[in-house]
């Protein structure tokens, strides 16, 4: 017995779903455009335009003060800055990539025990103050009663894994 021929309607379901999706999108846009009365309305639009104009004017003034409004001067300043940056040597980076040889060396150096310092009389601890001296009373601060710690909610544990399926007899 042979297989039946594939249906000629194989893509029909997909086309209907795509059409329904597009239809709902058009319907949504229509309803939004009809019911939205504040479309494109910004109550602070004038204020934002004024602030933008102030910023642009301040930028133009600072560029004029630096003399960068003239193209020749601007190119000379930028070429000088570029030359200064090229002459500057790059410094050693303090960033270390985890797992890199540098990080491994630093970890090994930190794990190595420090050599014991010889005990010398110059580094002896300072003698204790005499007992006759009265310590100053602590400065009073505002009293705040201790707040009992709230217990953390119990973390639910994951259920135990299901037992393995028995092997099928052969």
Report the span from N to C terminus: 32 Å
Which class best fits the helix and strand makeup?
A: mainly alpha
Strand composition percent:
under 5%
Q: Please give the count of helices.
A: 4
Helix percent band: 40-55%
Secondary-structure element pattern, one letter each? HHHH
How many extended strands?
A: 0
Outline: extended
Largest sheet: none
Rg, nearest Å: 39 Å
Catalogue the unreliable spans: none
- Mean pLDDT rating: 79
Describe the structure.
This protein is mainly alpha-helical and 170 residues long. It has a domain of 37 residues. Helix content is 44%, strand content 0%.
Which key phrases capture this entry?
170 residues; mainly alpha
Question: How are the SSEs placed, and which strands pair?
Answer:
Layout lengths: L11 H24 L9 H22 L4 H17 L13 H11 L59
């Amino acid at each position: 017995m042979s297989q039946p021929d594939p249906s000629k309607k194989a893509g029909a379901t997909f086309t209907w779903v795509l059409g329904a999706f597009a239809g709902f999108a058009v319907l949504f846009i229509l309803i939004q455009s009809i019911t939205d009365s504040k479309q494109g309305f910004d109550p602070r639009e004038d204020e934002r335009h004024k602030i933008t104009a102030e910023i642009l004017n301040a930028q133009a003034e600072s560029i004029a003060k630096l003399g960068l409004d003239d193209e020749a001067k601007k190119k000379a300043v930028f070429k000088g800055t570029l030359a200064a940056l090229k002459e500057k040597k790059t410094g050693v980076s303090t960033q270390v990539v985890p797992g890199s040889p540098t990080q491994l060396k630093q970890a090994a150096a930190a794990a190595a025990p420090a050599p014991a310092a010889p005990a010398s009389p110059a580094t002896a601890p300072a003698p204790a103050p005499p007992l006759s001296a009265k310590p100053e009373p602590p400065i009073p601060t505002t009293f705040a009663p201790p707040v009992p710690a709230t217990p953390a909610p119990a973390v639910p544990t994951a259920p135990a894994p299901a037992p393995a399926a028995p092997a099928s007899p052969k």
